[in-house]
Amino acid sequence: MRYLIALISGILCALPVMWEEVGFLSWFAAVPYIVLLLKSAPHCRYRDGLMFSLGYYGVLYHWFLCLYPLTFAGLNAWQSVAMIAVSWIGLTALNGLELALLPLILRILQLDPNSRSGKLLSPLLIAAAWCVLEWGQTQTWLGVPYFRLALSQTGSLPVLQSTSVFGSLFLSFLIILVNALLAQAWIGLTAHDRRSRIYAAAAALLFAVNYLFGAVAVAAYREDGDRCVRVACIQGNYLSGEKWNVTVAETLDTYVSLTREAASDGARLIVWPETAITVSLERHPDIVTRLSSLAREFDVTLFVGAFHDGTDADGEPLTYNSIWCIAPDGAVNQTPYNKQHLVPFGEYLPMAGFIRTVLPVLSELNLYSDNLQPGQTSVVTEAEWGKVGGLVCFDSIYETLSVDAVRNGAELIVMATNDSWYKDSTAVYQHNRHAVLRAVENGRYIVRAANTGISSVISPVGQVKASLDALLQGNVVADAVFSSHRTPYSIIGNAFVALCGVGLTAYAAVVTVSRRRTRKTENCSGED
């Protein structure tokens, strides 16, 4: 029964990450799981954690089903089924094993939930450990921070605003802290402990303070009208199975036509999706000429997703997934932004020798004959109204990249993404909600153009001012404002995560020293 409870708790936690409309569930869905952690023997906790994690990620990764069939990757029907099953189960297990480290951390900390100090500190320690584990998902190519708990709150602007101070990981911390306090309240209630009311009141107070702070921040938000510009996101709506089979000329015609419509609606800064042009601009001067003519004709600044050729230190050719900027005078910025976080098995093959030997079918998933190269830095482009930073697709789920852009001077951020792999599944909406988090964290307008949707314009307080749904062709036009204001988070970054790590380490050190002294005293007493 206990494993079923943990599994159901994980599933309930996953629901608001899929659908922001039920975001309120996040504030108590983890209570049954945390009750198990606090009441179980240490050796049982890891299995509880594993069941919770498998329920959580198993539900969230269900959108792999929408990838069928993988004909665009050269796989037949049965190969597609096998690959989707391996990916769904594999990523669920990989992320589940990582999140299931939470009980192991509690065991390393030698947390005794029944002691007086344990009852007081366990909610903080559990929340801190969760925060550190979510941060750990950004490390190495195996880390995919696609399903952070903070994502569940994008439907409530007041709740989101604290991310501008400490980041989205703080919001995840806060959600788990409230859940842990409610778990303590439940345990105390069943034991007829009067302190249960204190835990419940503390949980309610934390939520209320965070909400009140956000409500004031949203009400106080004002925009600088002097640097307001009409922006547009162009959505060509080419699915992955079609995109590479359509001629570049046909694709270009579609995007040029949609850009003309947006410019006629007053747009001056226009963003095309990731690899809207499926070739390198250096190899196609005719395309560059057409883009330059388009920018001059309508006096617009274009940000275009295309490939970029480069060379390494030995002069060997390299290819990047990039955003190019074409100025209103037709000049092309020769320093495009290059995507920094490439998609494993989509844009490059990690551990290539091992994969080709052990799992050769995975090597066939790569869409490109040669690995793409990751960019190494943010690039900020000077526009008429201010400085523009760029992110490409997968970049947007890694919060540090947008922070780097703002620290380098970006006053507005453009995002070019594909998302056509996911069609109209929940993954498309989740990816767009990551852009909402990045907007609030950095206090910047986000102009997000997606190949098949969702394309959107998002304000610095997380309001989606305009958007175009998935699997539609068209454009999104809205007003955006350049801002040089710096949020606390854009200055301190993930300092709160570091504080959690220091706190966990300090607690472990204190407990270890205290227990050694206790054993030493007991040994000395025994000798006497």
Write the layout of secondary structure elements.
Blueprint: H1 2-18, H2 31-39, H3 42-60, H4 77-99, H5 101-108, H6 116-136, H7 157-160, H8 163-166, H9 168-190, H10 196-220, E1 228-235, H11 240-243, H12 248-264, E2 269-271, H13 285-298, E3 301-311, E4 317-326, E5 337-338, H14 352-358, H15 360-363, E6 380-382, E7 387-392, H16 399-407, E8 412-417, H17 426-442, E9 446-450, E10 455-458, E11 464-468, E12 474-481, H18 488-492, H19 495-527
Parallel strand pairs: 1-2, 2-3, 7-8, 8-9
Antiparallel strand pairs: 1-12, 3-4, 4-5, 6-7, 9-10, 10-11
Strand content: 5-15%
Distance between the ends: 49 Å
Radius of gyration using CA atoms only: 25 Å
Q: What is the makeup of the main sheet? A: 6 strands, mixed
Strand order of the largest sheet: 5-4-3-2-1-12
Mean pLDDT: 90
Provide an overview of this structure.
The protein is α/β, with parallel strands linked by helices. It contains 19 helices and twelve strands. The protein has helices at residues 2-18, 31-39, 42-60, 77-99, 101-108, 116-136, 157-160, 163-166, 168-190, 196-220, 240-243, 248-264, 285-298, 352-358, 360-363, 399-407, 426-442, 488-492, 495-527; strands at 228-235, 269-271, 301-311, 317-326, 337-338, 380-382, 387-392, 412-417, 446-450, 455-458, 464-468, 474-481. The strands form two sheets. The protein has a six-stranded mixed sheet. A six-stranded mixed sheet has the order 6-7-8-9-10-11, with helices on one face. Helix 1 runs antiparallel to helix 2 (31-39), helix 3 (42-60) runs antiparallel to helix 4 (77-99) and helix 9 (168-190) runs antiparallel to helix 10. The two termini are 49 Å apart. The mean pLDDT is 90.
